[in-house]
Design goal:
By secondary structure, the chain is of the alpha/beta class. It is about 45% helix and about 10% strand. The longest helix is centred in the middle third of the chain and has 23 residues, at about 215-235. It is globular and about 60 Å long.
């Protein structure tokens, strides 16, 4: 079979392994002496990490300005506050320390502080785009889920428009990412599950995406293999450094995959849900809609679905793709059950009367256009109805 033509781009320097946080000062010093540290508000569980990061930076002579205003589903107002702080202190480099919200906020700040107007003026659908003036970004993830430390994406919510969108530009790739699995061991089980399922979703959607390539197929399938083996253990025993290390690597691989292949329908729906219902965690949104979408889709991509099923269960190797593809749906159900994430939209306090509006919003971002089985408004609405109590269709 002839191999397809493809491009692959990844400019981020990845420093992976336990203890690598100690290199933060050395890394930041390459880009400037005035640093904006971007985090969520300080709570007792994070105090020691924040203190340690600041000391590592200060030991290299770096002046640290701490912006601790990050919230889940970060808004344009949050980004503006961080950008103003950065401007007032003549910041030269931005460090996102935390989960996807902290890293995305750091990226958006790096744009807004160096460009006219708001970060919202530079979302992917705008005529204006970030330039080389964007401040250098350093990413230090404390969850294994979003892949933001190796992507060119910063997700931002505009509450006035009830719209969650993204800046998408190569200038948003972090210059360096420090992936230290030791920073993830204190993440509670539910957040380990939601972020970990996002790793699976990134890998799976990039694998079934027509914009994928042999390179992204390779990284995506390896990420799926790791999730199948290690996510349940990481949820059960958060202190298991082996499971945490492998999940950090799966997160990185899945991020590398979506940066070059993209996502599909589930992420379009989850993004819309985050815009309308900011209290819903991204991984929760994905978990709620995945069972129905899997059953709707598997017949449209039997070979790839079957390949994923065989990652979970190699004993299926001798059976036909058509038979095995359907089993993938059951396997994802079982994974969600095992990590205590088998939920419906009703469990997320989403009113049933909002489903039509949510279906319309799910078709605003272009993610659905890359889904193996094409959808329209009525089909998305039906998938949301099936997902309300938790469930799926037969794929017909």
């Amino acid at each position: 079979m002839k191999m397809k033509k493809f491009n692959y781009y990844q400019p981020t320097e990845i420093r992976f392994g336990t203890g690598r946080l100690e290199e933060l000062g050395e890394v930041v010093a390459r880009f400037g002496q005035n640093c904006l540290l971007v985090t969520v508000p300080e709570i007792p569980e994070l105090s020691e990490l924040f203190r340690r990061a600041k000391n590592i930076l200060k030991d290299k002579g770096i002046n640290v300005v701490h912006f601790d205003g990050v919230i889940p589903n970060p808004t344009v107002e949050v980004v503006a506050k961080g950008a103003n702080l950065a401007k007032n202190n003549q910041v030269e480099v931005v460090v996102g320390l935390g989960g996807g919200s902290s890293m995305d906020t750091a990226k958006a700040i790096a744009v807004e502080v160096t460009h006219p107007g708001s970060c919202w003026d530079y979302i992917f659908s705008s005529e204006s785009q970030p330039t080389e003036k964007t401040l250098p970004i350093i990413a230090v993830p404390t969850t294994s889920g979003t892949g933001s430390h190796v992507t060119q994406v910063a997700v931002v919510t505009n509450p006035q428009e009830k719209y969650k969108s993204a800046l998408f530009n190569n200038h948003l790739y972090p210059r360096v990412s420090i992936v230290d699995p030791e920073l993830v061991v204190t993440l509670p089980p539910h957040f380990t599950a939601t972020t970990g399922f996002d790793v699976f979703a990134h890998a799976f959607e990039s694998y079934i995406n027509p914009h994928g390539s042999p390179y992204t197929d390779m990284t995506a399938l390896e990420a799926i293999r790791i999730v199948a083996r290690y996510l349940p253990q990481a949820v059960k025993v958060g202190s298991d450094i082996e499971a945490r290390t492998w999940m950090a690597w799966a997160d990185t691989l899945a991020g590398l995959s979506i940066a070059n292949a993209g996502v599909t329908l589930p992420h379009g729906i989850a993004m819309a849900m985050g815009g309308y219902f900011p209290h819903v965690a991204h991984g929760e949104a994905l978990a709620a809609v995945y069972p129905a979408i899997m059953r709707y889709t598997y017949k449209a991509s039997p070979k790839k679905f079957a390949t994923v099923a065989r990652v979970f269960d190699p004993s299926l190797e001798e059976k036909s793709d058509e038979v095995v593809a359907e089993k993938t749906c059951e396997m994802i159900d079982n994974l969600l059950q095992e990590i205590n994430l088998k939920i419906g939209l009703s469990d997320l306090n989403i009113p049933e009367e909002a489903l039509k509006e949510l279906a319309e919003a799910s078709l605003v971002l272009p993610d659905y256009k890359s889904h193996p089985r094409k959808v329209n408004f009525e089909e998305v609405y039906e998938l949301l109805r099936q997902s309300y109590k938790g469930g799926g269709s037969d794929g017909d």
